[in-house]
Write a structure and sequence with these properties.
The protein has 323 residues and is an alpha/beta fold. The protein contains 10 helices and 17 strands.
Length: 323
C-alpha cells in the first residue's frame, strides 16, 4: 500500500513527508483493519512533521481524522486522535480517559490515515452514516470533537459571549456549535478570508485584534502564546479562556491585576474522551454544520501540509483516496 511517512522532522518546506510503499498492516487482538476513504489534515500533523511533537516511532504515518470502511465487513467508521487508554487508572475510572498516562494516539503512537490502510482498536472507532460524503465527515473527527471539548472547557454560559481566536478547521466548527446554543460569537483572526467565513457562518463580529465587547468565555485555537494575554484582557469578570491546541509557543508574563484578577481562569484542553466524540457526532447529525473544506488528492499530502503551514487553507484540508 501507499503511505506518507515522516522521514526526518523539519520545516515543512523541506519536505519531511515522503510517499513510500509498505505492507498492509495486520490488525492485532481487538483491532480492525480500515481501508481509508478520506483523512482530514490537522495542525497537529504539521507539528509532528516539523518536530514540535517528536514522532514516537520511526517513519510514522500522520493523520487522525479518518473516514473509512472495515475490511471484510464494509462498515463505515471514523478513526480519531485518541487510539487507546488503559481503562484502569484513576483518570479512566473517573471518566477522564483523555488524561490517562498510558493513552496512545493515532498518527503519533501508531500509524494514521495518511495511508491506504490503518489499524485501530475496535472500541475506539466511531460508527459513521452512509449518506454523507467522506470529505464532510472527516473534519468532524478531530476539528469537531476537539472543538467541542474546548467549548465544554471554556464554561460558556447560556446565551453568553464567546471569543474565538484563530479561525481554522476546529474554530469554524466550534463557532457553529456555540451559535446553535445561542451564543454571540466574536472571532479574532488576521486572515481576511477567515473573517469573511466567520461572518457568513453567523459570527456577531470578526476582527483582526480586539472583540467589540467583554467576553464571558474564549477559546484560543491559534498556537500562539502571545495571544493569551490579550485574550485574558478581553474576558469579563469570571470569564474562562480555554487553550485548545496540543502545542503552543511560549506565553509572555502575565500581570495578576490585568489578566487574572476578578476570577478569570485559564484552562488547557487535552485530547478528548470517547464520550465527547459520541456527543459531538450526535450533535452534528442532528444539526449538520457547514464544513468548509479544501480537497486534495492523496498524492498531494505534502502540499496540503505546506498550504496549512502558510495559511493558504480556509477551512479544512482533506486528503481523498481515489475511487
Amino acid at each position: 500500500m501507499r503511505a506518507w511517512v515522516v522521514t526526518e522532522p523539519g520545516p515543512v518546506d523541506g519536505h519531511p513527508l515522503k510517499l513510500v510503499e509498505r505492507p498492509v498492516p495486520a490488525p492485532g487482538p481487538g483491532e480492525v483493519l480500515v481501508r481509508v476513504e478520506a483523512c482530514a489534515v490537522c495542525r497537529t500533523d504539521l507539528h509532528l512533521a516539523e518536530g514540535d511533537l517528536p514522532p514516537r516511532h520511526p517513519l510514522v504515518s500522520p493523520g487522525h481524522q479518518v473516514v473509512g470502511r472495515v475490511a471484510g465487513t464494509g462498515e463505515r467508521v471514523g478513526v480519531a486522535w485518541l487510539r487507546s487508554t488503559c481503562g484502569r487508572c484513576r483518570f479512566c475510572e473517573r471518566g477522564l480517559e483523555n488524561l490517562c498516562p498510558r493513552s496512545a494516539y493515532t498518527g503519533w503512537d501508531a500509524d494514521g490515515g495518511y495511508a491506504e490502510y490503518l489499524t485501530a482498536p475496535r472500541e475506539f472507532v466511531y460508527p459513521l452514516p452512509e449518506d454523507l460524503p467522506a470529505v464532510r465527515l472527516a473534519p468532524l473527527l478531530c476539528a469537531g470533537i476537539i472543538g467541542y471539548r474546548a467549548l465544554l472547557r471554556c464554561d460558556l454560559p447560556e446565551g453568553g459571549r464567546l471569543g474565538v481566536y484563530g479561525f481554522g478547521a476546529s474554530a469554524h466548527l466550534t463557532a457553529q456549535a456555540a451559535i446553535a446554543r445561542g451564543a454571540r460569537v466574536h472571532v479574532v483572526t488576521r486572515s481576511a478570508a477567515a473573517r469573511k467565513l466567520a461572518l457568513e457562518l453567523g459570527a456577531a463580529s470578526a476582527e483582526e485584534r480586539t472583540p467589540p465587547e467583554p467576553l464571558d468565555s474564549a477559546i484560543l485555537f491559534a498556537p500562539v502564546g502571545e495571544l493569551v494575554p490579550p485574550a485574558l484582557e478581553a474576558l469579563d469578570r469570571g470569564g474562562t479562556l480555554a487553550i485548545a491546541g496540543i502545542h503552543l509557543t511560549d506565553i509572555p508574563s502575565l500581570g495578576y491585576d490585568r489578566h487574572l484578577f476578578q476570577e478569570r481562569t485559564v484552562r488547557s484542553v487535552t485530547a478528548n474522551t470517547r464520550a465527547d466524540g459520541r456527543a459531538y457526532l450526535e450533535l452534528a447529525a442532528a444539526r449538520p454544520p457547514v464544513v468548509a473544506t479544501v480537497p486534495y488528492p492523496f498524492e498531494a499530502a505534502d502540499r496540503a501540509l505546506a498550504d496549512l503551514a502558510h495559511d493558504r487553507v480556509t477551512g479544512v484540508a482533506v486528503l481523498l483516496m481515489e475511487g
